[in-house]
Specification:
675 residues, mainly beta, Jelly Rolls, Immunoglobulin-like, seven-stranded mixed sheet, six-stranded antiparallel sheet, 41 strands
């Protein structure tokens, strides 16, 4: 071959390389953005009564998936409150689009809007004389699709919009009232090479973003590839597809196109050979697409790590979370190990908020503050916007392999202040249990619980709730707190639901009779048992309460509607005192048990006023009675008897009759100490 021929060949090769390579005109990952100062060459234009600036410090602490890397550009109008209104424009430096035959714009974004009339988020390109709208977002994009924190990759042909201008520009134009945010990252304008096959996504296996255990064992690998070149990849083309587990040897198969793959088109491919992900993980899976002539290898491979979700680190009992580590008021960032569900509701009020003080909606939240201290944080689901079947907050992963009778407890504030009635605009709270391996969901392990029936917000209290986890002993579990809002009626924002002080533990064994909510539950002054559990927990007793001389003595009963109640009192002797017939254990009694099974040395507590007015003989009508709802509250001031402080007054226990059955149900016992 002659020297001139070699030179000509070299020139042709160089021209071919130039032709096949992508040419980048604008690229920005915002790595040099600081606070409200954009990278060099970019500018911000603000207008309106209360404009929100573009910023790179994430003022609302928004969380997004791996499509974004900090810093990213965000215009967060919600951080400025309800008075926010205006226009905020983020504009690029100029670029030379002259002589281009194909110009593509790509970026990732997350747009969360209240969809107020006239509000929009527009992407526009300047052609030297006018701004041309590329896309106009008026509804949520990214937010809730399917993950509230998902970023959506966008690609547009902007060749015509740029108009071959030597002074073309790009801008993100956000016009808003009181909206939420528009976030943008990884902006690029380029002339693609003719041949460019890109790996877009690993569609399976999927790492559970909320789960405990990552996928392991044999897994089907399915991927999506895209023709990002300017030329079609023709029918019958052979495209090499590889995957690697944990960086090991590649498994190679081939995609044979059954039709032309046009520029911008995608196709899915499933490997015949399954990938073996070693247990227990973590594992990584790298997939690669290879096509002869592809001059842009940077987009050929992607890697997915399989580590489980936010709560993947296993926790042994006991466990307590009081939410006081929240980063800020109304933050949607839950405590470490907790996660917002990425597959539940979308739109406004589709996440849980970390909050202190009363909730933002009128007549709904705890005016006394959080349960822990009154000044800390709690988690709540807002009832202001939307009707959502599921707004889920998911706990860390609890290892119950060493437990026999584990339980979960939490404090719930649930008051519906809707003046139209407690069933209108009602929120309901449930707790579901997710068990691993497998991720099987047990719905309504607790609940659904609506309004707790206090009548007024001032009277409403935090109430302890219990979830029995004994059926899941030996497994790994998560708790899913599921809010369900029903925004019927008007107004619709009167029933926020709040939780605090979530504990998971193996209760200390007790020998006393358990409370039986709905059958025979008995409380005095908020009594607690050895596990610090309230009567409503349904756990075994005995329970313990205190009373102050001259202070309140509040008794409450829960059983069948309109049934007589007998209250007995005596000394505490839960071990020796039993009652025949399978109705359960008496906690009170003297040193022994009489032949009939009734403990010795006990008395009957009756209504003295009704007793005095009753006819001669045992006045059955002098006993207490549950109301139509099956409950009764008796409240009086405890007299000052001069009893030494710390003395045990006595032990009380109730028997509630069900005359329909008929049965007598024995409640828990409560030992009362005088302060």
């Amino acid at each position: 071959m002659s020297r001139s021929t070699l030179a000509a060949f070299a020139l042709a090769a160089a021209l071919l390389t130039t032709t096949l390579s992508a040419q980048t005109f604008l690229q920005e990952d915002w790595s040099t953005g600081v606070g409200t100062v954009p990278p060099a060459g970019w500018s911000i234009t603000l207008s309106g009564s209360s404009p929100a600036p573009w910023s790179w410090n994430n003022p609302g602490n928004r969380t997004f998936d791996s499509g974004f890397t900090a810093p990213f550009a965000i215009c967060d109008t919600d951080t400025l409150g309800s008075s926010t209104a205006g226009q905020s424009i983020l504009e690029s430096p100029s670029f030379n689009a002259s002589g281009t035959t194909l110009l593509n714009l790509t970026f990732q974004h997350n747009f969360f809007a209240l969809q107020s009339p006239g509000d929009f988020a527009q992407v526009e390109v300047w052609d030297g004389s006018m701004w041309n709208v590329i896309v106009n977002y008026t509804a949520n994009s990214g937010y809730g699709m399917p993950n509230p924190d998902t970023t959506i990759g966008q690609m547009f042909d902007v060749t015509t919009a740029a108009g071959g201008s030597a002074n073309s520009r790009l801008r993100f134009n956000y016009n808003y009232g009181w909206d939420f945010w528009w976030a943008v990252d990884n902006v690029k304008i380029e002339q693609p090479s003719p041949i460019d096959m890109a790996m877009v996504s690993i569609d399976s296996p999927v790492d559970n973003p909320n789960g405990c255990l990552p996928p392991t064992g044999l897994q089907t690998v399915t991927v999506t590839v895209e023709n990002q070149g300017s030329a079609a990849v023709l029918n019958g083309s052979l495209i090499q597809m590889d995957y690697q587990v944990n960086g090991g040897p590649a498994t190679t198969e081939f995609l044979v196109l059954a039709a032309d793959l046009l520029p911008g088109a995608q196709t899915q491919f499933t490997f015949a050979a399954q990938a073996n992900l070693p247990a227990p993980g973590p594992n990584s899976l790298t997939v690669t697409v290879l096509l002869a002539g592809d001059a842009d290898p940077i987009d050929d491979s992607i890697t997915q790590n399989y580590t489980g979700g936010a709560g993947a680190g296993l926790i042994t009992l006991p466990y307590l979370e009081n939410f006081d580590g929240a980063p800020a008021q109304n933050s949607t960032v839950p405590p470490m190990g907790w996660s917002q569900d990425t597959t539940d509701a979308t739109g406004a009020d589709s996440d849980w908020y970390m909050h202190t003080g009363n909730t933002s909606s009128s007549n709904t939240g705890p005016i006394q503050g959080d349960h822990t201290s009154g000044s800390g944080y709690y988690a709540y689901v807002e009832d202001s916007s939307g009707t959502h079947a599921m707004v889920n907050l998911i706990s860390p992963c609890f290892d119950l392999s060493l437990n026999v009778n584990p339980i979960a407890q939490f404090w719930l504030f649930s008051f519906n202040g809707n003046p139209s009635g407690p069933t209108v605009g009602e929120n309901f709270m449930s707790v579901d249990v997710i068990a691993y391996p497998g991720g099987a969901v047990t719905m309504d392990a607790f609940g659904p619980q609506g309004d707790l029936g206090y009548g007024t917000q001032a009277a409403a209290q935090w109430a302890q709730q219990t979830v029995n986890l004994a059926p899941f002993a030996g497994q790994v579990v998560q708790l899913r707190f599921r809010g369900r809002s029903d925004n019927s009626g008007s107004p619709t924002f009167y029933h926020d639901q709040c939780i605090d002080d979530v504990s998971v533990f193996e209760p200390t064994p007790t020998v006393g009779q358990a409370s039986r909510p709905g059958m025979a539950a008995f409380d005095i002054n908020g009594a607690l048992n050895a596990n610090n559990a309230t009567v409503s927990s349904g756990l075994g007793g005995p329970y313990f309460a205190s009373v102050t001389q001259g202070g309140a003595f509040d008794m409450s009963f829960d059983g069948a509607p309109n049934q007589p109640i007998t209250v007995v009192y005596g000394s505490l002797n839960p071990v020796s005192a039993t009652y025949p017939g399978g109705v359960g254990q008496f906690d009170i009694g003297g040193p022994g048990v009489d032949p009939q099974g009734i403990p010795l040395n006990i008395g009957v507590f009756v209504d003295a006023i009704a007793w005095a007015s009753a006819p001669v003989g045992f006045p059955i009508d002098a006993m207490f009675f549950t109301g139509a709802g099956g409950t009764l509250a008796i409240n009086f001031t405890f007299p000052n008897f001069g009893i030494p402080s710390g003395s045990v007054l006595t032990t009380f226990q109730s028997a509630i009759t069900d005359t329909v059955a008929p049965f007598v149900y024995i409640s828990n016992a409560i030992e009362v100490t005088v302060n």
